[in-house]
Amino acid sequence: MRLLITIFGVIVGAVCGVIFAGVYMLSVVGTFWILLICMGLGGFAGWLVGMLIPHRVPKEVSLEHIPEISAEFIKQVIKKMGYRRKVRADVMAELAAHFEDELANCERPQEKAQQLIAEFGDVKLLGVLLRRAKKRSRPLWRTVVARTFQLIGLLVLCLPVYVVWFYSGKAVVSTDYVAEINRVARPAADEKLNAATEYIKAAESFEQMGNDISRLLGSGYAVVSVDEKQLVEDWLRENKDAVDLGVAGAKKPYCWFEYERSDDIAGIKFTFTLGVFRKFAWALCWRSRLRAEQGNYNGAFEDIISCCRLGQHFRGDKLVIEQLVGMGIESFAIGTLEELLGQYEVGSQELAELQQKIEDTAGGENPVLSFRVEKLLTYNALERLFTDGLGGGHIIPKAMDELFPEVNIIGGAGAIRGSEYGNVGFSEDIKRLAGWIKRKCHLLFFHPGKKETFKAVEKLYAYSERLAAKTPAQIEAEGIDFKEGSWELTKGNLLLRFFAPAFANASKQAYAVKTQVDATITILGILRYKKDKGELPADLAELIGAGYLKGEPMDLYSEQGLIYRKIDGGHFLLYSVGPNFVDDGGQTGERKWDREGDVVFWPVRR
Amino acid sequence: MKFESQLLKGVAPVVVLEILSRGQMYGYELSTAIEQRSGEILTLGKGTLYPLLYNLEAKKLVKGKWEKTDSGRKRRYYSITGRGKGQLARQKEQLKELTAGLNLVLGGALMPA
After folding, report:
1. Would you tell me which residues 20-59 of chain B have a C-beta closer than 8 angstroms to some C-beta of chain A?
2. Contact A136 B55 (CB under 8 A)
3. Does A93 touch chain B (CB under 8 A)?
4. Which end of chain A is less enclosed by CB atoms within 10 A, N or C?
């Protein structure tokens, strides 16, 4: 009995540990220790309780002193009574004693025994009455233990049924979110104004681009050999029509792609590959470098502007990943332009035209990310990941695995971070197994249902939209941690945790690009001023006053103007305080947008 | 005498508590004592005795413990608890009032001769 109570204590401790770890979403290490401590405490408590129970009942009950018929009757009663072994022994001993007393000194014990049995009445009824009475007299802790065991037993019995029911759940798709995405993503414009037509045609050439060319285009222009440069030049010449077709597309004011419905788990199909557009951007920037090298500055700048427009075509009401690609392309184009300006002496008139074009193209750009399409895409995924039935619908693990196999790779339960597995001292297999168990348990018992997830989506996107409208400086001043905030809002939600972290990074990227564009326009103004006046302006106010710049370029990392300073040798410094929000006097970090140091736009880093 | 079971049901615990208030007893002893002290008018069925004792024990009105008798045999002795005494006093008071009421209704038929 003591052993049983101790084992029970260990089990209760383990259950408590698992619940505790589940509620507080502990890491594997945390869960392991909590489990161990709880099991130890439970076992100790069980052992203590076991020790406190005294043995008051005779262990063996002898029925030898009473007639066989009486002994048989008692055995029958005890059998019908059921209940705990010790209680049964207790009652058995008492009934045996009663028979013994009644039959003592009796001349006809058999007859008396018969009579006594008749007086005791029906075996089954007596057994039931005895059990009921004994059950009433058991202490509260025994009742709690008994009920707990019963509950555990019931749960164990119900578990397979629940698991089968859970895993056999089917999604019910009731809303056509793909149509809604197409409606939102398409501006109110004529099909002729859609650049997608040209882009898709041009994309075929870029898709067929060989790995060697692709690698060279992705490399820095300064690091490739003359032969490699020639190789790219030849490719650009051979594919001039495709590049020009893309440039023609970039001249159009709009770009929208049709998303298609698919029968697979994703439910949506993209008619284009985003990677192709990155290759297209590389090609344009390379051509602009080659053209600048040949003295064709107007042609070079034209390609830069086309590349900027290409990037902008992926901004606005698009998926966050598309907007990110757009930002990347735009940033790449502007970065290339900065390099060209730092490398070549361009005439004032050409600079003025370029500045005007950049201002027209990207100057007034809104850096606030759009989440409209992304939200619809999330709803589209939710419809396929959740059932629509009992309890408002539950997650379908199989669908989740199919749609987001990456979640399995990080081993997380949506509730835990991949990094929490770092340096824990467990072998990879154990970590993987622990991650798998935790994930399955999380999906089965803790994952929010469909309704809760839809509500969480609303909250997450409202939060993301609110914060995306704030500049990095405002977010820093208000002490907001975008990533942590979105992480908190999506706690325990596997799907949303997959999306959330990207939003904060994408928003930062949008403000970085905006700052970069404004800085480049300012650089163009300063260079023009120097060309025209033979000296640098004293400050940016002088530049604005002389009509070389429309307004003070804002540093979105300080909520003040970008910092301009004249330095020795007739040069100047233009920089943003950067992601550390501190003016480091124009000292840069190792990389351009490092957390340390300033982001220096001029002089151009080579 | 054979009583209606419902009639005896309410009285049986009072009888057991009353007998036990005079000293601890084991099952058989108690059964015999009830018969003797009631002039063999009251007989508690054997099938009723032990469930009744266990119920009283559950309510903590009596407590049982294994002890050796004078003859060296082990018997489970029942004794009344403090709570049991209080309960007995209350029930006796109620029975007294019940008897008085019944007497009035039955025209003094319950009065001792």
Report:
1. 26-29, 31, 45-47, 50-55, 57-59
2. yes
3. yes
4. C
Whole-model pTM: value is 0.67
This complex has an ipTM of 0.90
Three-state SS at A409: helix
> Among residues A259, A262, A382, which one has the least CA distance to residue A321?
A259
Q: What amino acid occupies position A122?
A: D
B74 contacts A93? CB cut-off 8 A: yes
As a whole number of Å, the CA-based R_g of chain B is 15
Surface-to-core class of residue B23, CB atoms within 10 Å of its CB (0-12 exposed, 13-18 middle, 19+ buried): exposed
Cβ separation B51–A137 shorter than 8 A: no
Nearest to A332 by CA among A278, A253, A412: A278
Burial of B72 (0-12, 13-18, 19+ CB in 10 A): exposed
- pLDDT tens by residue, A324-342: 999 999 999 999 999 999 9
Two tokens at A111?
């007859």
Chain A to chain B Cβ contacts (< 8 Å): 68
B19 to chain A nearest CA, in Å? 18
Distance separating alpha carbons of residues A204 and A346, to the nearest angstrom: 35
d(CA A129, CA A148): 24
Predicted confidence (pLDDT) per residue in A555-579, tens digit:
999 989 999 999 988 899 999 999 8
Distance from CA of B60 to the nearest CA of A (A): 8
Check if the beta carbon of residue A269 is closer than 8 Å to that of residue A260.
Answer: yes
- Residue B75 belongs to what H/E stretch? strand B74-80
